[in-house]
Specification:
Length: 126
Amino acid sequence: QGHLVESGGGLVQTGGSLRLSCEASGLTFNTHAMAWFRQAPGTEREFVAVVDVGGATQYYGYPVRGRFTIARDKANKMVSLQMNDLKPEDTATYYCAAGPQSQLRLWIQPTEYQYWGHGPQVPVSS
């Protein structure tokens, strides 16, 4: 049974930076694409970023392009999300997700992912 544990959430000021990490266990890390989603109160879960099994291909949601960077660490079975130039509209609970890459059809769709973390909160103050 796969398990994802995030760390690194917390309050940050507008324009600041924050790094989220996610450690995977109980799943074959090298066959799973790793992604980040976020959800603000009263909204649907939103795609943030995804990285493929090789780590060389990343895709970002439009609101975070140029500010966020996703990376995977194969040796430690971890994925990170570096968030720079944070804005109040980035305030959300951030979720790490994993899904078998061979089965993913629409990488931005939350229902495609099999495993989820608990979701640390990232409040961005104005």
